User: Which sequence fits this backbone?
């Protein structure tokens, strides 16, 4: 990427963004990411672009950014994660970003950059917890994925199990997020997660998908996988 790139206005940004579009890659992405207009710009390029914007007039960018494509939304979230400012301002921008999320891709890619949440863990936990009862599928997924990213720890584990069980949204990408989050809990804390699963009130689909995600993990040994397979609910 041209290191001299500086944000000077949205039309120039769009022109720059389009210059990296790969039609074949876009066609591939569309098969994996429904519901988005996609240019086909690769994630490392979007991350680099966001870092450059964060070094220039990033507040202007966040005031002007649109959500016409997956790439625009992704750069939006990545700039929030890269911008150097205080916790309260970043949290406000993060809250404004959530309604723009239209797919698992922008949710998951951007969520991993929201490291500012570590600055004030309890406030961040409550912020993310609030999205778990949202009516919007990707707002709920945002809450689940970021809780997974930043709070899968011994201190928060039991609270996470309780929260995941309370999610009522039936969206596919919500249930998949919970299954993924449970599998990460198992990888990091196999014994307490096993005990939790024995009495879990997760619906059968999410419960069994959680087991599947655990079994698919390269960080789970063969003996653990055999035990997890035996926990599958029938029906």
Assistant:
């Amino acid at each position: 990427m041209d290191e001299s790139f500086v944000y000077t206005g949205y039309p120039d940004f769009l022109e720059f963004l389009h210059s990296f579009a790969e039609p074949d890659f876009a066609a591939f992405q569309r098969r994996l990411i429904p519901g988005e207009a996609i240019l086909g710009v690769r994630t490392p390029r979007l991350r680099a672009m966001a870092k450059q914007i964060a070094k220039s007039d990033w507040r202007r960018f966040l005031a002007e950014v649109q959500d016409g494509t997956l790439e625009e939304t992704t750069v939006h979230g990545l700039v929030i994660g890269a911008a150097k400012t205080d916790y309260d301002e970043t949290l406000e921008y993060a809250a404004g970003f959530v309604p723009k999320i239209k797919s698992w891709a922008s949710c998951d890619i951007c969520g991993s950059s929201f490291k500012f949440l570590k600055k004030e863990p309890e406030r961040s936990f409550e912020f993310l917890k609030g999205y778990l009862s949202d009516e919007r599928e990707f707002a709920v997924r945002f809450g689940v994925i970021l809780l997974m990213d930043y709070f899968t720890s011994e201190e928060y584990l039991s609270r996470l199990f309780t929260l995941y069980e309370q999610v009522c949204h039936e969206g596919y990408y919500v249930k998949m997020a919970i299954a993924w989050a449970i599998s990460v809990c198992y990888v990091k804390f196999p014994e307490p997660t096993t005990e939790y699963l024995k009495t879990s009130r997760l619906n059968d689909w999410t419960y069994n998908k959680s087991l599947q995600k655990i079994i698919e993990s390269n960080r789970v040994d063969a003996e653990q996988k055999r035990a997890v397979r035996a926990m599958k609910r029938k029906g």
About this structure: The mean pLDDT is 96.
